[in-house]
Amino acid sequence: MPDQSTPRPLAQTPAQTVGPFFGYALPYSGGPTVRAPWQPDAIRLHGTVFDGAGDPIPDAIVEIWGADAAGRPSTERGVLERDQHGFSGFGRAAVDRDGHYVFTTIKPGATRDGLAPYLLVTVFARGVLHHLFTRAYFDDEAAANAADPLLSSVDPARRHTLVAVSDAPGSYRFDIRLQGEGETVFLEFAALDPAPERRGEGMRR
């Protein structure tokens, strides 16, 4: 019988990080289709999620939320069952093997005077202990972007990481870089509070 009086050395266990199990549990049919693509006001938002080495991440999840074209938040329910004539405001997309995601949605209006139109973006990815928050503004809203309190508080050298670039009629590209050169500016949840005096709190520089 083994001697129980002498303690045995303990082996170090591997570090635990998020996923990639969420890639199986979170995606759902119709998740990326916030607005039916055949609707005349539908736009395409797409991009690639990159890691710190600049390589695409093949198993990330991206979520967006946005107001409608008039800047009104959606009051619809049942986002798991998409209404082809409706708009829920919320979308969830898994990236493909090349790290690329695609949404169809509505280009939002400003939710309040003095703010530029933007989409809230949430990222789940391997090695990320807690999901990340950022925003996607639009490059064809230059005047509104220049006056937006949060966007104008970001270091000018990094401001472009929060701007989706028009690459075709009704299409915008928004790449997300988790670390390294060109890292996307991520926000603490408090920074999403609409109170202007809280704009920029907890912002990662």
What distinguishing features does this structure have?
205 residues, 9 strands, nine-stranded mixed sheet, 7% helix, single chain, mainly beta
3D architecture notes:
Belongs to the intradiol ring-cleavage dioxygenase family. Keywords: Dioxygenase, Oxidoreductase. Residues 43-180 form the Intradiol ring-cleavage dioxygenases domain. Its EC number is 1.13.11.3. This is Protocatechuate 3,4-dioxygenase alpha subunit. The chain is mainly β. The chain has one domain (22-198): Protocatechuate 3,4-Dioxygenase, subunit A. The chain contains 3 helices and 9 strands. Strands 1, 2, 3, 4, 5, 6, 7, 8 and 9 form a 9-stranded mixed β-sheet that branches. A hairpin with a 7-residue loop joins β5 (119-124) and β6 (132-138). The radius of gyration is 20 Å and the shape is globular. The model is unreliable at 191-205 (pLDDT under 50).
Secondary structure layout:
Blueprint: H1 22-25, E1 42-50, E2 61-65, E3 90-94, E4 100-106, E5 119-124, E6 132-138, H2 142-147, H3 149-153, E7 163-168, E8 171-173, E9 176-177
Parallel strand pairs: 1-8, 1-9, 6-7
Antiparallel strand pairs: 1-4, 2-3, 2-5, 5-6, 7-8
